[in-house]
Write a structure and sequence with these properties.
alpha/beta, Rossmann fold, 7-stranded mixed sheet
């Protein structure tokens, strides 16, 4: 209840339209070593970049969902000054991608309800999905997640960035989660470059008005994606 009161106070004190960003990350055992270290560093850099941009600082709200042999919210939705910097993540288990995406969408839904209840406008929510493999959780959960994403994206109620990490990433499955643009594969371990691009994209959206069509920096993809 205390957390909810803090969130409500934030919305009342800062009625700026919000950009909710749910980052859904694969923390299965195969992400051990350099991949998870670079991912953590990239997320923290993303926080710092949002913090330093005047428009994005007031508008962006971020949550992080991890999936391995289950799914868990490791960072509840929060404005940048309340985001906890990540010190470490311990990869383990398998790749329950469907469960992770469903939890991320549930978290986005709850956040949108909170905005509406407090009269705060919001931009089209973002889902960032990152994995180095293929799903091996419940098939029904995966199919449900794909259908939810497809419906939301098709109705322009969700912007999706599906990112494959390494040669083992199942790009065909990621394509199912990205109906409006092809998924992209990360160049090596260029997590920092990706999150730098993402922070600039969030800043660009936060400078517009809710409902506006905002063009992404496609030229900037070359800094982190295999094109």
């Amino acid at each position: 209840m205390a957390q909810l009161n803090i969130e409500t106070e934030d919305l009342v004190e800062n009625p700026t339209p919000r950009v909710p960003v749910a980052i859904c990350i694969d923390t299965s055992g195969s992400m051990s070593g350099d991949p998870i270290r670079e991912l953590v560093a990239g997320v923290n850099q993303f926080y710092d970049a949002i913090d330093e941009d005047d428009d994005a600082h007031d508008a962006a709200e971020v949550c992080i969902v991890e999936f391995n042999s289950g799914a868990k919210v490791i960072q509840e939705f929060a404005s940048v000054e309340r985001l906890q910097r990540i010190t470490t993540i311990a990869p383990t288990g398998r790749t329950y991608m469907g469960e992770g995406v469903n939890l991320a969408l549930d978290t986005l839904d709850a956040r949108k309800r909170l905005y509406s209840d407090n009269g705060v406008l919001y931009y089209q929510p973002w889902l960032v999905l990152m994995t180095d493999g293929g799903p091996n959780g419940d098939r029904a959960a995966l199919d449900r997640a794909v259908q939810r994403v497809t419906d939301l994206a098709g109705n322009k109620k969700l912007t999706v960035f599906a990112i494959g990490i390494g040669a083992g990433a199942d790009m065909d499955v990621l394509a199912r989660f990205s109906p409006t643009r092809p998924p992209l594969r990360l160049q090596g371990l260029h997590f920092k470059e990706f999150f730098e691009w993402l922070s600039k994209s969030v800043a660009r959206v936060s400078q517009s008005s809710p409902g506006d069509t905002v063009k992404l920096d496609l030229a900037g993809l070359a800094g982190w994606a295999e094109l």
